[in-house]
Structures are given as structure tokens and as C-alpha cells.
Amino acid sequence: MENNVRCEMSQSESLIMDFLWKNDGGKGFSEIMEYLNGELHKNWKKQTINTFIRHLIDKGLISADTSQKSRRYSAALTPAEYARGKADKILADFYDGSVEVFLSALTGGKKLSREMVDELDKMMKD
């Protein structure tokens, strides 16, 4: 994942991302607008949707393909990559980037169970 990607988005922006994640191959503005206003009943104006799309582009979360007659928008990263970036941001912002500090906060300073240690070990090996 690139350093200039900001793994944070508003609830409204997440609706667009969810749509793009579910529909590979890129979507045009009218398809996004139809989804939001038709299926989700948002009743948003073009300018509002355009603003959300521009914010997502600025954050590096979607890309715009301008090689065709009409612009196509695609997710720039997978949901898993986004989740990883968000987790990294939380770790950096709240736990000084330390997994140890995070785990201590998560467990309330108590020792991890053998089961949890085994699970973490397996995750690190995978």
C-alpha cells in the first residue's frame, strides 16, 4: 500500500467504496449515482456525490480511468488492504505503533491465554 493512501473515510464515502468493491471493473458516475439514489434511496445531488468521489480520489482510495469516453471509477485497494491500513493507523495513532502496547490495552494488562498466544503465533506464521 502506498504511503499517500489515507485509510479513513466517512460513512457516506464508505457507501461508494462498498459499491466499487462489490463491482469489479470500474463504474461510471451514473452507475454510482443510480446505486446511491435508486437502491439506497439517498436522494443526493450530483455535486454531493462528486464531492465524495473527489475526496476518495484525494485519499488514494479510488482511481479514475479517463482513457474511455466517460470516466470509470475503481477501488484502488482491496477491502483487506484497506482494513490493514486502518489497523496500522489506529496502532500508530493510539498505541505509538506498538503491538505490545495495543495487546496490553486490549487485555487490560492481564496475561494472554495460551489459546490466544497460539492463535497469534499461527497468524504471524501465515
Descriptive account of the structure:
The chain has six helices and three strands. The two termini are 19 Å apart. It is mainly α and 126 residues long. Strands 1-3-2 form a three-stranded antiparallel sheet.
Summarize the structure.
The protein has 126 residues and is mostly helical. Helices cover 59% and strands 8% of the residues.
Helix/strand layout:
Layout: H1 11-22, E1 27-28, H2 29-39, H3 46-58, E2 62-65, E3 72-75, H4 79-95, H5 99-107, H6 114-125
Antiparallel strand pairs: 1-3, 2-3
Helix pairs in contact: 1-3
Poorly predicted regions = none
Shape by Cα distribution: elongated
Strand order of the largest sheet: 1-3-2
By DSSP (H or I, 4+ residues per run), the number of helices equals: 6
* Residue share in β-strands: 5-15%
Q: Could you give the count of β-strands? A: 3
Reading the helices and strands in chain order gives: HEHHEEHHH
What's the main sheet like? 3 strands, antiparallel
How helix-rich are the residues, as a percent range? 55-70%
Q: In whole angstroms, how far apart are the ends?
A: 19 Å
Mean of residue pLDDT values? 91
Taking Cα atoms only, what radius of gyration do you get, to the nearest Å?
19 Å
Structural class: mainly alpha
